[in-house]
Amino acid sequence: MTTAAIAAAQRADIPDKYKWNLADLYPSEAAWTSAKEALQKRLPELAKHRGHLGKSAKDLLAGLQLMFDLDRDLSRLMVYANSRSDEDVREARPREMKQSAEELATAFSAATSWVRPEILAMDPARVHKLLAEEPKLGPYRVYLEETLRRKAHTLTAAEEKIAAEAGEMERAGGEVHGILSNADLPYPTIKLSTGESVRLDPAAFTLYRQDRDRADRDKVFAAFFGALKTYERTMGATLASAVKAHLFEMRIRHFGTALEAALFSDNIPVAVYKQLLADVHRSLPTLHRYLALRKRMLGLGELRYQDLYVPLVASVDMRFGPDEARAITLEALAPLGAAYTEALGKGFESRWTDYLPSTGKRSGAYSTGVYGVHPFQLLNFNGRYEDLTTLAHESGHSMHTFLSHGAQPYATADYPIFVAEVASTFNENLLIHYMLDHAKDDATRLFLLGTLLDGLRTTLFRQTQFAEFELGFHEQAERGEPLTGENLSKRYLDLTRVYYGHAQKICQVDEVLATEWAYVPHFYYNFYVYQYATSMVASTSLARAVRDEAKAGKTARRDAYLKMLAAGSSKYAIDLLKDAGVDMTTSAPFDSAIAEMNATMDEIERILQHKK
Ligand SMILES: [Zn+2]
Fold it and tell me: How many C-beta atoms lie closer than 10 Å to residue 36's C-beta?
């Protein structure tokens, strides 16, 4: 398929085989409407169970069964409405459907808001006794134990009500920052050496910091960070306000630190976070080796922070049609075994995927799933290498959904965020190694190795640096020291200089870069970014093991990995990964990811050597 044919403008012109089949959810819009009305009618049934959950195992079962059944039906309604709307966001009718599904979801959560408090009011011994009495409660064990685990951090009903009201105000810092950085900040316009004028908002900055012309890059960094500097005090105040909210939650819910409070909901040990930071510091020599290689490949006399985003290797032109991309993905994932690739192949055939961009379609890519039906994935496939990567990535999420939905009851079919990006980035890793094995020339090989290497650099090091910065300013606030734009910039500059070896003259980090923190929205997400790094660590380590094993004709690691995907949320994230062979409380997975980074650099150096 040619590029022109891929860029079909109108949805109606795209062949069905490249569109997802939403009729698998509801045969018609009318069927959706009657399902929604039926669910609406059933909501009042929930109230009949109120006050009865603790009476007997049968009562507990009846209440939980009803709640989870309605939840399952609701999520099916929502996925249909959202997907219809994403096909063309301009259409009014799907937007209305989406809105009425959201209203129903609000009504559902109001109708079930008493369930957790009622379970919490029970003696844990009583809950365990009921669980032991009634085997049919088995699927709800995780939900019940999860509810009880929160007991020490749950307040009285009246206090919870105040906490919920306060929660509305707690978002102010992030909201003000969002409006300032997305809309109101007067971003500068600069003229590039090509004569082109560009307004440097965050999206344009992300694009133009990759400019091959060094003088242009300098201009881009100076102008963008200069604009941020003007708002350094304001941005400091918005971040300080978000941190105050995190500390408020920490104190009222009786946690020792903000980090502990944030990691509690997924039951991730604080040690995992600290381990990541320690591992990265130990591995800074690998980052410094990367920086030296970058300096050499870009032919620079000295490397500066402004030189970090130019792609290591100029892009080689690789083009793929959707059918070819599917075939390559299936071949690349072969180390996962025939059962995996056959199921995914069937999914491709039976229209899980909405491939092509069209007018009005939502941008980006995602995978979602409906229990009892199948996964759905939305792409905007343009035929470039990164689109192929996206297909492999989203297929990783979809197969995770497929396997866990197939093996788990609804109550444990959803998987935790901490493992979700392992399944997707694992597939990206298999894809890039498959492409490397089949690359016909050094230019392609260098491009792929450069892509792999840059991905590891930004995820392992940059995201962990963010995580360390985030921990640092929370601890500063916990000590009662004020957070200001000025001291946040100083903290950021000092840390960046340690990472990039400024003092050792490995990479120069200028004063002007100190305000980089100010435009990063993730610092408002309450200890979220570290998961980008841990997911990459886990998936790189797992994929290495599975690839090595496949070469030796063995399958033990692969089987353990597939078992983890099928386990949904029947265990905690850390235990799921441990079962798959990666213990995130140790350095072993990180060392394996660093070994991959070093092996990639060995390979690049080997090619550069013989190119001479
Ligand atoms: Zn993803």
Answer: 20
- Asked if residues 6 and 321 have their Cβ atoms less than 8 Å apart, the reply is yes
- Confirm if 272 and 584 have CB atoms less than 8 A apart: yes
Question: What are the Cα distances from residue 415, in Å, to 86, 565, 583, 611?
Answer: 24, 8, 18, 46
Q: Is this prediction's pTM over 0.70?
A: yes
- 484-516 pLDDT, tens digit each: 999 999 999 999 999 999 999 999 999 999 999
Tell me if 544 sits within 8 A of 596, measured CB to CB: yes
As a whole number, the mean pLDDT across the chain is: 94
Residue 214 exposed, middle or buried by CB count within 10 Å (0-12, 13-18, 19+): middle
Strand partners, 376: 368
Beta sheet of 375-378, edge-to-edge order: 353-354, 375-378, 366-369
Which residue out of 232, 394, 421, 468 is catalytically annotated?
A: 394
Q: Is the dihedral of CA 577, 582, 586, 590 positive or negative?
A: negative
Task: Determine the distance separating the centroid of ligand 1 and the alpha carbon of 383, expressed in angstroms.
Answer: 19
pLDDT at 7 over 60: no
What pLDDT does residue 160 have?
84
Residue 596 is among the residues annotated as catalytic for this protein: no
* Closest-CA residue to 398 (of 358, 350, 362): 350
Q: How many Cβ atoms are within 10 Å of 18's Cβ, its own excluded?
A: 19
Q: Are strands 375-378 and 353-354 parallel, antiparallel or unpaired?
A: parallel
- Residues, Cβ < 5 Å to ion ligand 1: 424
| pLDDT at residue number 612 | 61
- Average of per-residue pLDDT across 352-379: 95
Between the CA of 280 and the centroid of ligand 1 the distance, in Å, is 23
- List the alpha helices (DSSP H) in 156-231: 157-170, 172-179, 202-208, 214-230
Residue 1 has pLDDT above 90, yes or no: no
Amino acid at 15: P
At 292, which amino acid appears?
A
Q: Are 455 and 429 in contact (CB under 8 A)?
A: no
Distance 393 CA to ligand 1 centre (A): 6
Overall average pLDDT of the 572-589 stretch: 96
Q: Which residues of 380-419 are buried (b: 16+ CB within 10 A; e: fewer)?
A: bbebbbebbbbbbbbbbbbbbbbbbbeebebbbbbbbebb
Q: First-to-last CA distance in the chain?
A: 37
Query: How many angstroms is it from 282 CA to the middle of ligand 1?
Result: 28
pLDDT, tens only, 303-346: 999 999 998 887 788 899 999 999 999 999 999 999 999 999 99
Residue 437 has pLDDT above 70, yes or no: yes
More reliable by pLDDT, 171 or 515 = 515
Residue 296 CA: distances (Å) to CA of 210, 214, 502, 545 = 17, 15, 17, 31
Q: How far is the CA of 421 from the centre of ligand 1 (A)?
A: 5
Number of H helices, E strands in the chain: 26, 5
Task: Give the span between the Cα atoms of 304 and 346, in whole angstroms.
Answer: 49
Run of H or E including 191 = strand 189-191
| Ligand 1 centre distance from Cα of residue 430 (Å) | 15
What's the average model confidence in pLDDT over 470-479?
A: 98
* Chain centre to alpha carbon of residue 323: 27
Q: Tokens 């092509």 label which residue?
A: 356
